[in-house]
Amino acid sequence: MPLVRTNIPARRRLTSEQRRDVLLDAAARVFATHGYHAASIEQIATQAGITKPVIYHHFPSKKQLHRAVFEHYAQQLLATAASHGHDGTPKERFRDLVAGMFAFAHEKPHAWQLLLGDSSDPETALLQRQLRAAGTEQSAARLLDAADLRFDHRLSQRKTAEAVAELVRSAVDGLVSWSLQHPEVSRAALIDIATELVWSGLRQTAPAA
Known about the structure:
The chain is mainly α. It contains nine helices and no strands.
């Protein structure tokens, strides 16, 4: 009897790197939804469509998986910020940077919640503080490198840049988080609001040289 051929395509086997990405994405969703303590390896395995032994093959414990997930998306967020805001006028560069943060959050809301959402877990809170500090340091360095921005204050250029960067980062992060809770509000309008208000204050703090 001849074999019956079907049109069902063969299931593509994931590479180890692809399987790890699927696992990290699933873990981020579960951690963001349930929090670190309530999240379980079984929930993550179900979300990823794999078995628990596969998870333990990559990560010996839930704590190590949680840290790996956080660091994976934290690097993506910092890389996104670093890749935006390099062309155009200073105001246009700032708007592009803000737009980049909005795009990241709305494309990966589970990752944004994990990285910057409220958390009562000490381990997550510590990682979040470290991420915010890294973001502030990165923003301060960009302010200091901008030839068209010079701070005129009693503090040193470095400390003033750090203070301004902390204020701006906190404001933008807060607005982005608010926008995720209010998806009916125009993202473009919020980006314009952030640009106009924050940039106006920034220009007064750092008048052109």
